[in-house]
């Protein structure tokens, strides 16, 4: 279950904001930011649409933004330009007097929604019955507070796409097996690139409640990586046919992908790494470099705008921005800024302390690894 607490009767976006022009909304956003001053902190995730990310105080990955929010004790309001799980993490890392706001409560992550705490408990019961006390859970930070709390309770940790190899090495120093959730691709790609053959991997299906080998004819008795059957709907849409097309039509174009892509795509790419890795690769490349990038479209477009000296396109020419990642728009942002300016909080994200305490255990274990 998702343990977000918010007023179920929170009003919908008032019509007057829908009727405002983009120019009027931008002017109002700038005015309200000036009025709120240091009482406001606006973190923005890399995947957000340009119309709102332009107002962000900082941009970055989800955990990085949550930590930066915690480093702003003077801010009364953290208006998070991101999605539910990101705002949850910010709430868990900031003191209660700081109010974390998500401008549009529909902003979410389909991957995070592919695992809930009840499913995790069911999986844990079944897997520990089979393998005994040999498993440690690890969850991608792209997961709900409730899933992070499950992992924290059972001695596990969170992981990011940047530190996945380091965290996985730590996990295997604790137990023989790792339950990796909710993104099977990040877990598979990380372990494979660290030297684990796929015959030692298995996939847990939370709907069917069954475990199957990752490759045919492999034995479940040999499995040491238990992958949750979850994925990012955006990154799964970068396919081998797209790589083959670029290899044939434009062989000088380098393929750069995120490890949330499938194993086949990640292995066929020239480079694979986290969002920050993708940004750094392009930033350090010489003029004239050509890229086909496999990650969320808003970031691809932003990189192309920021680096006109290079040729940057999406690996999938038909890709659209992530629907749930793109919910926050100017009208919603201006509305919550307006409310904050008069001391009202709408769309607050508050994680129950019982959940937050266990979730912080998982986050703290990762932080301790440096």
Main attributes of the structure:
single chain, 370 residues, alpha/beta, Rossmann fold
- Report the CATH topology name of the largest domain: Rossmann fold
CATH uppermost class of the largest domain: Alpha Beta
Structural class: alpha/beta
What average pLDDT do the residues reach?
Answer: 94
Q: How many angstroms does the end-to-end distance come to? A: 30 Å
Runs in which pLDDT lies below 50 for 5 or more consecutive residues are: 1-9
Tally of structural domains: 3
Summarize the amount of helix as a percent range. Answer: 40-55%
List how many beta strands DSSP finds: 15
Shape: globular
Largest sheet: 6 strands, mixed
Question: Explain this structure to me?
Answer:
With 370 residues, this protein is of the alpha/beta class. It has helices at residues 15-19, 22-36, 50-53, 62-70, 84-93, 117-131, 145-153, 164-174, 184-193, 240-249, 263-268, 275-283, 297-306, 330-341, 353-367; strands spanning 40-41, 43-45, 58-60, 77-79, 99-101, 135-140, 157-159, 177-181, 201-205, 210-213, 225-228, 254-257, 271-272, 290-294, 311-314. The strands form four sheets. A six-stranded mixed sheet has the order 7-6-8-11-9-10, with helices on both faces. It folds into three domains: 15-108 and 325-351, NadA-like (Rossmann fold); 112-229, 3-Layer(aba) Sandwich (Rossmann fold); 235-314, NadA-like (Rossmann fold). The protein is 41% helix and 15% strand.
């Amino acid at each position: 279950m998702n343990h977000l607490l918010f007023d179920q009767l929170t009003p919908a976006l008032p019509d007057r904001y829908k009727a405002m022009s983009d120019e009027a909304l931008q002017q109002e956003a700038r005015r309200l930011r000036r009025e709120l001053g240091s009482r406001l902190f606006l973190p923005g995730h890399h995947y957000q649409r340009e119309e709102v990310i332009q107002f962000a105080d900082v941009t970055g990955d989800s955990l990085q933004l949550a930590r930066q929010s915690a480093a702003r004790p003077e801010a009364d309001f953290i208006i998070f330009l991101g999605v539910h799980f990101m705002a949850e993490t910010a709430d868990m890392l900031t003191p209660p007097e700081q109010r974390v706001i998500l401008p549009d409560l529909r902003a979410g992550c389909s991957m995070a929604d592919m695992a809930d705490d009840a499913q995790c408990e069911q999986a844990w019961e079944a897997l520990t019955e089979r393998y005994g006390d040999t498993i440690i859970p690890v969850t991608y930070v792209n997961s709900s507070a409730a899933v992070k709390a499950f992992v924290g309770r059972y001695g596990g940790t969170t992981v990011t796409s940047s530190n996945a190899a380091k965290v996985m090495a730590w996990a295997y120093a604790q137990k023989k097996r790792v339950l990796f959730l909710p993104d099977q691709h990040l877990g598979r790609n990380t372990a494979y690139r660290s030297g684990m053959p796929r015959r030692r991997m298995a996939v847990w299906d939370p709907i069917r409640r069954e475990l199957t080998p990752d490759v045919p004819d492999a034995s479940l008795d040999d499995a040491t990586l238990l992958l949750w059957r979850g994925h990012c709907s955006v990154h799964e849409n970068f396919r081998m046919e797209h790589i083959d097309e670029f290899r044939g039509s434009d062989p000088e174009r380098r393929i750069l992908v995120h490890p949330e892509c499938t194993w086949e795509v990640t292995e066929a790419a020239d480079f694979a790494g986290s969002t920050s890795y993708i940004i750094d690769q392009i930033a350090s490349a010489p003029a004239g470099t050509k890229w086909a990038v496999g990650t969320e479209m808003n970031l691809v477009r932003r990189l192309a705008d920021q680096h006109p000296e290079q040729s940057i396109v999406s690996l999938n020419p038909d890709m659209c921005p992530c629907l749930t990642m793109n919910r926050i728009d100017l009208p919603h942002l201006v509305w919550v800024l307006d409310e904050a300016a008069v001391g009202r909080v709408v769309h607050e994200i508050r994680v129950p302390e019982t959940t937050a305490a266990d979730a912080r255990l998982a986050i703290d274990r990762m932080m301790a690894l440096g």
